[in-house]
Design brief:
The chain has 326 residues and is mainly beta. Helix content is 9%, strand content 27%. Strand 36 and strand 37 form a beta hairpin. The longest helix is centred in the first third of the chain and has 12 residues. It is globular, with a radius of gyration of 21 Å.
């Protein structure tokens, strides 16, 4: 499930979509309709996907998409059922195509549908502070609290027994039961995705959402960006300290503990039972296994296998770090 809240303006004839690209091969692309843009894993035969790095070759070999935007040197990984659209810049091309399907996903203007909660049907259901604003299509379960000056923008689902602090902004998010979002958090804004250009930087559409599963806590001043072409997900019973940044497309596992000022670049995944000390950083497109411990201040720049303890920059096995720094 991607963002159920942005309107999809498709389907489009594949030929029309290719007019927005620098496609190098245009044969046999004239009659098919494309209904959506999806990642390699979730794409169906009605969708178009993209493949830009060998790191995703295993997913690429199994994709069900009818079309894939890719590079010439990666095209052989794709199944025969998937037609290859060869371009020079995969991410720039897919950004242009995604914008056609979801033109409103580029901007994050404030929600002008919000009303004071006292003027909505939620006033009898939720205990709330002063100056709480609620947008359209917001659903909130029972026994929830919302603090002062908080804005729940349109298209948000909040489960039961949840506590939302003061000065919080939430959009494009599904929050399950028994979740606490502490003061000053921003959840569901677009991620930091763009392509540098000499004249004007080109924004990447973010059509995913944030999903926060049961029994989680998000600390004060933390930011969780929504996904671009997949969702940002926080697993069950995960506790996140203050001033943590989780960028677009990250997948955080169950029962994780993440200390203050940790930063995650986009599209990385953490297994279950991961512990991360304060001020550590995790680079993008990495996989951190289950039961991993990352010491505070470490810099993770490559995959970490299950049951590892790492420290330092670049983060390496704890015993090796201690040996090298005697």
């Amino acid at each position: 499930m991607l963002n159920p809240f942005f309107k999809n303006f498709g389907p489009f004839n594949i030929e029309k979509l290719l007019q927005k690209t620098d496609t190098e091969n245009k044969e046999n692309f004239k009659i098919d309709k494309i209904y959506n843009v999806s990642d390699l894993l979730t794409a169906t035969k009605k969708d178009l996907t993209f493949f830009h790095s060998k790191n995703y070759s295993q997913l690429a070999s199994k994709t069900k998409a009818s079309y894939c935007v890719t590079l010439e040197n990666l095209s052989h990984f794709l199944p025969n059922s998937c037609k290859k659209i060869i371009v020079k810049n995969v991410l720039l091309t897919i950004a242009k195509i995604t914008k056609e399907f979801y033109p409103k996903s580029i901007v994050d203007d404030f929600d002008d549908t919000v009303k004071d909660i006292s003027k909505t049907s939620l006033k009898k259901k939720v205990k709330f502070g002063k100056n709480v604003l609620i947008g359209k299509n917001v659903k909130i379960g029972i026994n929830c609290l919302i603090g002062h000056n908080t804005i729940i923008e349109k298209n948000v689902v909040i489960g039961s027994n949840c506590t939302i602090g003061s000065n919080v902004i939430i959009r494009n998010t599904i929050i399950k039961d028994n979740v606490s979002i502490l003061d000053g958090c921003v959840i569901g804004k677009k991620g930091f995705g763009f392509f540098p250009n000499n004249k004007k930087n080109i924004r990447y559409p973010h059509i995913g959402i944030v999903i926060i599963n049961e029994n989680c806590e998000i600390g004060c001043g933390s930011t969780v960006d929504r996904g671009s072409l997949s969702n940002t997900i926080i697993g069950k019973n995960t506790y996140i300290d203050n001033q943590v940044h989780i960028a677009h497309n990250n997948k955080i596992g169950d029962n994780c503990i993440i200390a203050g000022q940790v930063g995650f670049a986009g599209s990385s995944s953490l297994g279950n039972n991961v512990m991360i000390g304060g001020q550590a950083g995790v680079s993008g497109h990495l996989k951190v296994g289950n039961n991993v411990q990352i010491a505070g201040g470490s810099g993770v720049i490559k995959d970490i296998p299950d049951n590892s303890k790492v420290m330092g920059y670049p983060a390496k096995n704890l015993r090796n770090f201690l040996k090298d720094n005697r």
